[in-house]
Amino acid sequence: MGLSYFKERGFNPQIIEKFDLGYAMDGWDYFLKAAKAAGFEEDILLKAGLILQKEGDPSRLYDRFRGRVTFSIHNISGKPIGFGARILTKDKNQPKYINSPETPIYHKSDVLYGMFQAKKAIRDFDNCFLVEGYTDVISMHLSGIENVVSSSGTSLTDGQIKLIKRFTNQVTVLYDGDAAGIKASIRGIDLLLEGGLNVKAVVFPDGDDPDSFSRKVGSQAFQDYLKENSRDFIGFKIGLYQEEFEKNPIRKAEVIREIVQSIGKIPDPIIRSVYTKEASGLLEIEEEIIHTELNKSLIKSQKEHFQKAKEEAEAEEKLEELVPSKNLLSVEDTLRIQEKETIRLLLNYGWKKLDDEDLHLCHYLMSETADIVFFTPVYQKILKIYRDSLSNGTIPTTDFFCLLFRCRDSTGSD
Prior knowledge:
By secondary structure, this protein is of the alpha/beta class. The protein has helices at residues 2-8, 13-18, 30-37, 42-47, 115-125, 134-142, 158-165, 179-185, 187-194, 210-217, 219-229, 233-247, 249-264, 269-283, 287-322, 331-349, 361-368, 377-391, 398-411; strands at 22-24, 51-54, 57-63, 68-74, 80-87, 97-99, 128-131, 148-150, 170-177, 198-206, 231-232. A 5-stranded mixed sheet has the order 8-7-9-10-11, with helices on both faces. α12 packs antiparallel against α13 (249-264) and α13 runs antiparallel to α14 (269-283).
C-alpha cells in the first residue's frame, strides 16, 4: 500500500532509498514486536517516541505510526532521528500527518528536512531553496534540484536559520500559489533577513506548490520557472501587495512601513542602503522618506533590545542574590576554563572531519574564534601557533606541540 502511494507520486526506487521512505503497518504493535525481536528495549522505544503508552494503563504499549507512509528525518550526518508519517486514507477524524515528538536526539527547532541530502548542493550552488513539505523536497530532487530543504510546515527558528547559514548566505523561499497563505507566512522572510541571509522568493501559479507544479510541467520547465521568477524580497513584497495599494493610498502607506521594517531587520548597513534605494524606485517615493522611517524603525528596535537586555540583567542579578557568592566563579576563572576547553578540543580532535568531507573540526573552531583574543597568555600563544600552522596547510597535533615546546625549552627561547 505504501509503495503504491510512492509510485503514484512518481517516486522511483532510487529516491525512496535516498530519503529512507517507508511504510508503517496498519496494526497496533507490528513495529513494537519487530523492534523487540531485534533486541530493542521498550524504554528506549518510548524515549525515541516510536511507541506510546495507553492512557490509564501504562503497561499497554502500541505503535505511534500505523497505516502511514513514513518520511525519515535525518540529522546533518545522515542518521535518522525522527519521522513524519502521512495517512493514506481519507479519514477526516485522523490528522493528515503525525510527527515524532521532541526527544533527546530530535530537536525540531534545529532540524531542516532534507539538509543531509542537500548540504553539498547548497554549497556548490551557493543557494538554498526553502519549501514547506516533505514531498516538495523530494519532487525537486526528482526535477534535478538538490539544494532544497523544508521547515516541515512549522515556523522558522533561529536554530534552523543558523543551520542554513553554515552552508550559504543565499536563500530562495518557494511559496504555493495562494496569496492569503503567503501573507500569513511572510514573517519568515524577516526572520531570514535578521539572521543575515540574502532572501529571494518565487511564487507558483495559483493552486500549485513545488510538488504539483514540478509534476505538471516537467523537470526542465520547472528549473526554468525558478530562474525566471526569482525576485528579491523587496520586489516580491511590493508585488504581493501592489494590487491593494494601487486602489488605496492609505494601504500604500502601510505597505511602505512594512517594507521599511523588513529592511530594518538586515544587519549589514550597506545592504540596507542598497535595498532602501531599490524600494524608493519601486514604490515611487523619495529615498529620504524611507531613510527617515528606517531610522525610526532602527531606534525602536534598539530600544526593544536594550529593554530586553536590561530585564535579563536584572533577572540575573536577582538570581545571583539567591546563590551564595562563594559558589560563583570569577570572570577570569570562567574565561580560563573556556579557553582551556577550546585548546583541548583543538589539540585532541582538531584533525577529525565533521559531517562534510572537506571540513575539519579545527576549521570550524577557528572560524568561531577568528575575532577572539584569549585572556590566558599560554593559551593565546598556542592558538596563534595553531592558526599559523593551518595557514601553511598543516593541522598540528599534541605531538607537534610537545616537540615544539621541548625544543624551545632546550634552546631557552620564549
